[in-house]
Amino acid sequence: MEEIWKDVISYEGIYEVSNLGRVRSINTGRKKPLKPLLGNNGYFKINLYKDKKMSAINIHRLVAIAFIINDGNKKQVNHIDGNKINNNVDNLEWVTDSENQKHSYDIGLKVGRKGTSHHNCKITEETVIKIRELWNTGEYVQREIAEIIGINTNNVWKIINGVRWKHI
Q: What predicted TM-score, i.e. pTM, was given to this entire model?
């Protein structure tokens, strides 16, 4: 892919960003790409200076602003391959927060918490197994199981029918 350079918005005549995710200073005459910094959040950033003020800006945002049309006025830039340091324009897209979150689960960057690791968990895996064993005997109705275990009938129904704790 041919490298294309465009002015960084608000830093015209000072810095340029490329479609390959590199940034360079153009007012020094050197036009050599600057070395990016790896931020605590795992994204490459660059320190840009203007009027004796420094701003640390994520490089993927600079690339998206310069090269990707944002018709939907979306606020976040997503790395399609999940690699936070791959700032090639072909790997970036404008997304909403919910689209970004969904993407992170879809590609496995985030995993939903299940069972006792979930923050709302009130019972254990052993209790779930006990509920299903009691139900499978055919001797108990859901209300009785709920009384034995100490949870509400609706939760017993959801456990028996695999709505909750389906991974057990």
A: 0.69
